[in-house]
Design brief:
single chain
């Protein structure tokens, strides 16, 4: 318990400069881009020079970039992410309103890709070089090469437009009045295609990693010794090979969280899911810098938390890692 607590403190302290770099870097990159929120607003509704100047003063865009950055960092110390100029609402409330939908999409896609990919990887790696190993390896390579947006469009055309088995878009049926378990089922039906589109690529990645890890473990001395003692192949697979090959997948689970969060931007746009990805797309169109930085900051915190949980899980699975990290 003390080792886990020391590991947790080290990771939390190390995440502070990371978040600072994310905030400052995002602010400077957005400032370097041409135009601002006033330009985007005037381009959509029109306006004269007087209105433009008034908007810049009202939204605080008349100050220098360094002055606005210092003011933003000071507000951030008080957990204030600023005010969205496009939505006229606090950034934190807008982000927290959309965050559950993204978490639900990411969680379901991660569970699908990790558990199914691991299971198929065990099936392929239990007998390296067999026909099922070759078929699964080729299939996973083909899936990994498929663009997520293309797969999302194909699944939508087949299962929503032609067969009409699943909903076309959205998070749930609008104004359906469903509550309780019926609402849960309605949300689940709406998530089938987005989760499949987002998770299928990473499923192929976990399958290939698990298969490669098992192929390596099969050649290790303790596995050869277990086979020499006459232990059954199924017992060797589950108690020795699969267990040792699983550790790199746990690490990859944390590394792929950022990639999956980025992939959700495309999937949410295709299926009109009101999550952080679609909110970021709207913020880019409106040049809403405070909202964009807030989304990036919350996403960075989310990735750090996921990787922290993965580190704790890895230290639990392999006590040697936890001991070395805690004593470092």
């Amino acid at each position: 318990m003390n080792r886990a607590w020391r590991l947790l403190k080290r990771r939390l302290v190390g995440s502070i400069p990371v978040l600072l770099i994310v905030v400052v870097g995002s602010f400077l990159l957005l400032e370097a881009a041409p135009g601002d929120a006033v330009d985007a607003y005037v381009a959509s509704v029109g306006g004269d020079a007087g209105m433009i100047e008034a908007l810049r003063q009202s939204w605080g865009l008349d100050a220098s970039p360094m002055t606005r950055l210092a003011a933003y960092l000071w507000a951030l110390l008080h957990l204030d992410l600023g005010h969205s100029v496009a939505l006229s609402r606090p950034v934190l409330s807008v982000v927290l309103e959309r965050l559950p939908n993204t978490l639900l999409l990411m969680g379901a896609a991660t569970a699908l890709s990790f558990f199914l990919g691991t299971a198929l990887g065990i099936v392929a790696g239990s007998r390296p070089g067999s026909l099922r190993d070759r078929l699964l390896s080729v299939g996973s390579l083909a899936l990994y090469a498929v663009p997520g947006f293309w797969l999302a469009l194909v699944l939508t055309i087949v299962f929503s437009v032609q067969l009409r088995w699943l909903p076309l878009a959205g998070m749930e049926t609008i104004a359906s009045g469903k509550t309780g378990f019926s609402r849960v089922l309605d949300i689940a039906r709406h998530l089938v295609l987005p989760v499949t589109s987002l998770g299928i690529i990473y499923l192929a990645l976990y399958l290939r990693m698990m298969r490669a890890g098992m192929a390596e473990v099969w050649r290790m001395d303790f596995t050869l010794a277990a086979r020499a003692r006459g232990i059954g192949r199924r017992r060797i697979v589950w108690r020795h090979v699969a267990r040792n090959a699983l550790l790199p997948l746990v690490t990859m689970l944390g590394l792929q969280s950022a990639a999956m969060l980025g992939g959700s931007v495309v999937i949410e746009s295709v299926f009109s899911i009101p999550g952080l990805g679609r909110l970021a797309q709207e913020a880019v169109g409106a040049r809403d810098t405070p909202l964009l930085i807030g989304i990036i900051l919350v996403s960075a915190v989310l990735v750090i938390v996921i990787n922290l949980l993965v580190d704790i899980a890895y230290a639990t699975l392999d006590p040697r890692v936890g001991a070395s990290e805690a004593n470092a």
